[in-house]
Amino acid sequence: MRRFVDISVPLQAGIASDPPGHLPEIDYYDHKQTAAEVVSFFPGATVDDLPDREGWAIERVRISTHNGTHLDAPYHYASTMDGGKRAITIDEVPLEWCLQPAVKLDFRHFPDGYVVTAADVEQELTRIGHTLSPLEIVLVNTSAGTRYGQPDYVGTGCGMGRDATLYLLQRGCGSPVSTPGAGTRRSPTPRSATQWTTTRRSSGKDTAPVAPSATPTSRSCTTWSRCPPTGSRCPASR
What we know:
Layout: E1 25-29, H1 35-39, E2 58-62, E3 70-72, H2 74-77, E4 80-81, E5 85-86, E6 99-106, E7 115-116, H3 118-128, E8 137-141, E9 159-160, H4 162-169, E10 175-178, H5 193-199, E11 217-219, E12 230-235
Parallel strand pairs: 6-8, 7-9, 8-10
Antiparallel strand pairs: 1-2, 3-11, 4-5, 6-12
Helix pairs in contact: 3-4
């Protein structure tokens, strides 16, 4: 039987979901608060004309393209890729990259700040008995999902290192997906800042061309544990 697993998280204000200064902001308005605004759209109408004197419940949302469960385009990480070519933007990411068979790598046992290596990826693929195929989406399950919304969320979990990212790209896997992210840590911490600066261009101009030429990543997902290691199909978000 087919089973759907929602890997997205709801946008929510007031929790630790992103680095400081990049949190979503949401203003909530109930039916009473918007009644006067609603009748202003209809000349001659008054609040008394509204059913139960109620307007519309709405939210006004201020977000960046990095909030919530999302797809990062190569342009997010750097202005160039593939030996100096212009990095593609989100509207240029091929749709066929975004709905493909998926494989899940379980890296929850790695400590916070650990940088995953190509050897780690190979070992996990051997453990689950899987051989990567071109365009396959790789889900990287870290421990960050268990801390979503908590003060230590941003710094929780491991990250995919440069050689691990290239290992996937060189096998045609165009959309490594993880929590908190593939190719970089969510944010550099004191113990991982050096690794972060050397991995942020892992599909960019300081590497030999690989195919596919870019690594979009879907982030802020908390339900990887519900996905099987193999046999699923994964749509990238947004």
